[in-house]
C-alpha cells in the first residue's frame, strides 16, 4: 500500500511491504534511520520512541509513540519525527538534547534517543514540566545506566528554559504540507476508513479482517507471535469514533478515544479511575491505546473494564446499519470470547455520570507501580444511606477468565450496616464469586487474599475518620 507522510520536513510517498510493517522496521530498513532503536519489540522499554505530529485545525498536536508496535500505515497524513530530525539548522543540538548532555543524562546511549523523543514531545506541547508530569512522560523509557536522576534533571533544565526551536519556525510550512496530504484510504489488505459508516461497510464486507486501533495488543501478535494478518482495518482515522459527548446524565465515549484523551475527562468525575488510567501504561501507550480496544480485546486483566462495569457502563455495538446496546458486564462470555458477531464492532461506551450518594474507589495491584500489567484490579461503587449499604457494584479484573462482578459479595453487603463486621462477614463470600488461577503475576491464594483486603481498604476509605490508605495517589493529587 502507498502512504504519504512527512518524515521531518520531507514529504514521502512510499509503498509499504505489508499491512503489518511496523514504523520501526520502516525507519530502520526502509529509511536507513537507525537512531530509533529496537529494545523489547513490545512497547515496554521506550528505546523506539518517535513523535507523531497531527493536524488539529491550524495547530499540530504532538504525541510520543512506540515505533515497534505501531503499524506504518498509521503514518499516512501525519508527520513523523525521529531523533535525526532534532538537529537545528545551524547544526546545533536541540535544547532537550543539550540538556541531556549538560545533565550527564546518557551513558551507553542505547535508550537515549527514545528518552530524548519523549522529552521532545513534552517540549513541543509546552508542558510545564513539574515532577509528576515529567515522571509520567518518562515512565515508558527504561534505562539501565543512569538511575534516572540526571534524566529528570535534563527535563527540568530543558522545560524551564524553553525557547522557540526550528519546529516553531517551520510551523506554517508544516501545517500547509499536512493539509496538502490526502489520506490514502484503502489498499490491498489495508483499509483506513474515515467515518463510522465507512467502517461499517468495510467490516461487513471483510468480517475476517483484524481491527486495529492503537495496536498495543495486535502489534505484539506481529512482533512476538509472528502472525501474518492478511487484512487489517485501521481505526485511528475514524473521526466519529474519537468523539466524547456529554449529556446531563451520561458520557458517550467513542470506541477509538485514547486513554490520553480520556484521562482529563475522568479526573474531575472519578479521580480513582483517572489514577488507574495514569498507571495503565506509559505515555506512549496511552497516546494510542483506546478504551474500545481495551474492551474488545477481552483480556481478563485489562484495567478499564472492571472500572467501567462497576460504574454500570453499557456498550453500543454496530453491524452495518444495525446497532444494539448491552451492559458491558454481559459482553464478556468466557476467556477469549465476547458477545460480538461477525462484522460487528464496538462503536461507543455509554457511561452514567456520577450520581448523588454514590462513591467510587479503584485499586490496581501490580509488581511495578507504573507501566505494569495488573495482578488484579478491584473497582467498588457504593451507595451508603444512613450508615446502611443501599446499593453497590463490585468488579474485579484478574480474578476470573473475564472481568467480572462479585454478585454474591454484593448481595452479602446490600442492606447491611456499613461496618467492619459486615465487611468481615462478606470477605469469605468472594470465594463464591471467584476461583482465581495462579500465574507469573500472582498465585491464586495471593489474589484471593488481596481481593478481600481491597474490600476492607474500600471500607476504611469510605468510613468516617477512615483516612487515606494510599502510599501515593497521584491521580487525585494531580487531577482531582
Automatic annotation (TrEMBL):
Q: Name one Pfam family in it.
A: FAD_binding_5
Name the Gene Ontology molecular function terms of this record.
xanthine dehydrogenase activity
Q: Does the keyword Amino-acid biosynthesis apply?
A: no
Q: What is this protein called?
A: Xanthine dehydrogenase small subunit
Enzyme Commission (EC) number: 1.17.1.4
Q: Which InterPro entries match?
A: 2Fe-2S-bd (IPR002888), 2Fe-2S-bd_dom_sf (IPR036884), 2Fe-2S_ferredoxin-like_sf (IPR036010), 2Fe2S_fd_BS (IPR006058), Ald_Oxase/xanthine_DH-like (IPR016208), Beta-grasp_dom_sf (IPR012675), CO_DH_flav_C (IPR005107), CO_DH_flav_C_dom_sf (IPR036683)
Q: Which SMART domains match?
A: CO_deh_flav_C
Would I find Metal-binding among this entry's keywords?
yes
Residue limits of the FAD-binding PCMH-type domain? Answer: 183-356
NCBIfam families in alphabetical order: xanthine_xdhA
Q: Which UniProt keywords apply?
A: FAD, Flavoprotein, Iron, Metal-binding, Oxidoreductase
Q: Gene3D superfamilies from the entry?
A: 3.10.20.30, 3.30.465.10, [2Fe-2S]-binding domain, CO dehydrogenase flavoprotein, C-terminal domain, Uridine Diphospho-n-acetylenolpyruvylglucosamine Reductase, domain 2
Broad class of enzyme this protein falls into: oxidoreductase
Amino acid at each position: 500500500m502507498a502512504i504519504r507522510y512527512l518524515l521531518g520536513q520531507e514529504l514521502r510517498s512510499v509503498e509499504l511491504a505489508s499491512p503489518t510493517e511496523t514504523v520501526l522496521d520502516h525507519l530502520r530498513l526502509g529509511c536507513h534511520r537507525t537512531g530509533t532503536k529496537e529494545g523489547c519489540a513490545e512497547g515496554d522499554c521506550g528505546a523506539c520512541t518517535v513523535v507523531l505530529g497531527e493536524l488539529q485545525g491550524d495547530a499540530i498536536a504532538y504525541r510520543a509513540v512506540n515505533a515497534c508496535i505501531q503499524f506504518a500505515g498509521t503514518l499516512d497524513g501525519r508527520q513523523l519525527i525521529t531523533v535525526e530530525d532534532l538537529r537545528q539548522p545551524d547544526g546545533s543540538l536541540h535544547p532537550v538534547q543539550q540538556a541531556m548532555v549538560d545533565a550527564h543524562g546518557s551513558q551507553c546511549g542505547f535508550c537515549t534517543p527514545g528518552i530524548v523523543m519523549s522529552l521532545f514531545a513534552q517540549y513541543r506541547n509546552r508542558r510545564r514540566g513539574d515532577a509528576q508530569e515529567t515522571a509520567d512522560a518518562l515512565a515508558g523509557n527504561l534505562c539501565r545506566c543512569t538511575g534516572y536522576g540526571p534524566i529528570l534533571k535534563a527535563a527540568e533544565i530543558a522545560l524551564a528554559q524553553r525557547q522557540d526551536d526550528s519546529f516553531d519556525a517551520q510551523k506554517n510550512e508544516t501545517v500547509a504540507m499536512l493539509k496538502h496530504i490526502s489520506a490514502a484510504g484503502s489498499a490491498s489488505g489495508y483499509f483506513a476508513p474515515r467515518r463510522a459508516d465507512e467502517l461499517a461497510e468495510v467490516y461487513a464486507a471483510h468480517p475476517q479482517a483484524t481491527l486495529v486501533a492503537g495496536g498495543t495488543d495486535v502489534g505484539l501478535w506481529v512482533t512476538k507471535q509472528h502472525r501474518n494478518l492478511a487484512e487489517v482495518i485501521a481505526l485511528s482515522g475514524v473521526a466519529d469514533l474519537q468523539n466524547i459527548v456529554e449529556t446531563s446524565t451520561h458520557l458517550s465515549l467513542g470506541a477509538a478515544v485514547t486513554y490520553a484523551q480520556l484521562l482529563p475527562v475522568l479526573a474531575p468525575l472519578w479521580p480513582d479511575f483517572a489514577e488507574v488510567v495514569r498507571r495503565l501504561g506509559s505515555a506512549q501507550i496511552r497516546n494510542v491505546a483506546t478504551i474500545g480496544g481495551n474492551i474488545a480485546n477481552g483480556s481478563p486483566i485489562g484495567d478499564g473494564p472492571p472500572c467501567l462495569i462497576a460504574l454500570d457502563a453499557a456498550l453500543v455495538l454496530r453491524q452495518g446499519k444495525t446497532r444494539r446496546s448491552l451492559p458491558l458486564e454481559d459482553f464478556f462470555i468466557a476467556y477469549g470470547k465476547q458477545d460480538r458477531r461477525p462484522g460487528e464492532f464496538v462503536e461507543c461506551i455509554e457511561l452514567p455520570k456520577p450520581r448523588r450518594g454514590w462513591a467510587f474507589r479503584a485499586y490496581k495491584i501490580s509488581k511495578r507501580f507504573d507501566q505494569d500489567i495488573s495482578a488484579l484490579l478491584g473497582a467498588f461503587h457504593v451507595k451508603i444511606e444512613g450508615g446502611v449499604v443501599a446499593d453497590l457494584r463490585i468488579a474485579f479484573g484478574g480474578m476470573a477468565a473475564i472481568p467480572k462482578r462479585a454478585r454474591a459479595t454484593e448481595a452479602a453487603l446490600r442492606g447491611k450496616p456499613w461496618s467492619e463486621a459486615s465487611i468481615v462477614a462478606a470477605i469469605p463470600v468472594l470465594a463464591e464469586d471467584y476461583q482465581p488461577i495462579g500465574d507469573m503475576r500472582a498465585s491464586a491464594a495471593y489474589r484471593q487474599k488481596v481481593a478481600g483486603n481491597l474490600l476492607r481498604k474500600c471500607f476504611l476509605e469510605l468510613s468516617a475518620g477512615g483516612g487515606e490508605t494510599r502510599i501515593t495517589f497521584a491521580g487525585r493529587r494531580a487531577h482531582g
